[in-house]
Design a protein that fits this description.
Layout: H1 2-18, H2 23-29, E1 35-39, E2 42-48, E3 54-61, E4 64-65, E5 68-69, H3 80-87, H4 90-93, E6 102-106, E7 109-115, E8 119-126, E9 129-136
Antiparallel strand pairs: 1-2, 2-3, 3-9, 4-5, 6-7, 7-8, 8-9
């Protein structure tokens, strides 16, 4: 019985170490995404065109951070336009196309689409959660 207990005490820690995952093992196994914190509690992910320029951004409330999960409702509605101006200034967006701007409402979901000469800005909101997607017209992801 003592030998069995000793064998378990020796092999169990070795098995735990063998199953540990390193950063490179995780990167080999799963897709990795860059996440930028543009303001406290607000994150942006980006996709890039072959020339290295950003072709799409997604902006949303940070759900995970160094202190754990944060399940607040989302980005404050009043700060959405400021975030868009910060990440894609009016000079980069270009002229607003008054014909292609739309607002859709379905049940509890509201989507607005603002079309500019260089980008399209989608704002999707539901129950206080807001996700903003900016797509460049002339850059293919």
């Amino acid at each position: 019985m003592f030998k069995l207990l000793m064998a378990i005490c020796v092999t169990l820690p070795l098995a735990a170490v063998a199953s540990a995952q390193t950063a490179s093992e995780l990167a080999d196994r799963y897709a990795h995404h860059e996440v930028y914190e543009v303001q406290a509690g607000v994150q942006m992910t980006a996709k890039f065109a072959s020339n290295g320029l950003v072709c799409e951004m997604q902006i949303e409330q940070a759900h995970f951070g160094k202190d754990g999960a944060d399940l607040r409702k989302g980005i404050e509605k009043e700060s959405v336009n400021g975030l868009i101006d910060q990440l894609v200034p009016p000079s980069e967006r270009g002229e607003k196309n008054p014909v292609d701007n739309m607002i859709f409402g379905t049940g509890q979901v509201l989507e607005s689409i603002d079309s500019y000469s260089n980008v399209t800005v989608h704002v999707l909101s539901s129950h206080g959660t807001i996700v903003v997607t900016v797509k460049w017209r002339c850059r293919t992801c």
